[in-house]
Amino acid sequence: MHEGLLPIGSFARAASLSIGTLRHYHDAGLLTPVRIDPGSGYRYYSAAQLVAAEVRRRLRAPAGPRPEGGGVVTGPCS
Fold first, then answer.
1. Could you tell me the strand order of the sheet in which 43-46 lies?
2. The model's pTM
3. 58: closest CA among 8, 15, 20?
């Protein structure tokens, strides 16, 4: 059928992303499926796209804990 391609659910699990996030990435032009079934609209991704998905997942992750009172710096830069 779609040899070598992962349906959106399998790709989402492998990439540790939700299906909704993948749909958003597609709509925003950030990660386009390799194939979209013309009849059902179902999205298929290649295993090679997992690297791009991983990069996007890491970029959207929080930067980590912030120090107490770590708001916007308003003083002069040194």
1. 5-7, 43-46, 35-36
2. 0.71
3. 15
User: Rounded to the nearest 5 degrees, what angle is found at the Cα of 28, between the Cα atoms of 25 and 30?
Assistant: 55
35 near 21, Cβ under 8 Å? no
Rounded distance between C-alpha atoms, residue 55 and residue 58, angstroms: 5
Residue 52 φ/ψ, nearest 5 degrees: -65, -40
Instruction: Please give the full DSSP string across the chain, using - where no structure is assigned.
Output: --TTEEEHHHHHHHHT--HHHHHHHHHTTSS--SEE-TTT--EEEEGGGHHHHHHHHHHHS------TT-----S---
Structure tokens that stand for 2 in this block: 């779609």
pLDDT tens for the chain, residues 1 to 78: 578 899 999 999 999 999 999 999 999 999 999 999 999 999 999 999 999 998 888 887 665 555 555 455 454 655
